[in-house]
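Structure tokens please, single chain.
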Amino acid sequence: MRQKTEWVKFMKEQYPPGTRIRLTEMKDPYDPVPPGTEGAVDYIDDECQFHMKWDNGRTLALIPGVDRFSIIPQPLQTLKLYMPLTVMLYEQNQWGDLENDPVEIDSCDVLEHADSILAAIVKERRPEEAERGLMKYYHKDDGVNQKVQSCVFTVEQAHNQLMGVAECRVKGELTTEEMELLKDYVSGQASDGFGEGFEQRPIKTSDGEICVSLWSSDKNWSIMTQDELEQDQQMGGMTLE
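Here you go.
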């Protein structure tokens, strides 16, 4: 019984709702769905039958191990998670030395350093991260790991300011819970992982050296999807708790 339960759980993880399937052969003796028909998994029941929404309107279930089918690979979609940057400038004095106390650069003025910041971020990426980016270090065996194929930090102009961006390549749709788990992981990478090392490596500019933080302890710091960012801007830039 336990073995069967674990098998059903495994199959539900491997074939979540929305998984696209192309039928090769259905063994139903009465009125099988025609070979070549495509459809999407609706849900998998406790008997491990795939309840389907076939494109031709049929709903006859698939029985793994009896019926033959193949998975239609889902195209990867780009998901961008935006976060405010904090940029501190160590100015050069008249003798060419750096001041001890930095000043924070206005968010709009940071745009002048966009190319330098992006180049520095790309330089931080490691060869072993080429395939999955920071998802290489995500060790949970869950939907986030299965759906998010890669995640890298970059920067992008949004609403007249330069923002940090976690650019993710995602297969399928993330649930609300999975989105929150991904945001938590990106937040950790921004504060204690990738972001911690990046912040400690000054970037040389014509004005001096800048240190860029992807994360901030300020209560207004948050990670937002593009839709959430648009909503935030429409409400005057307020961060909703």
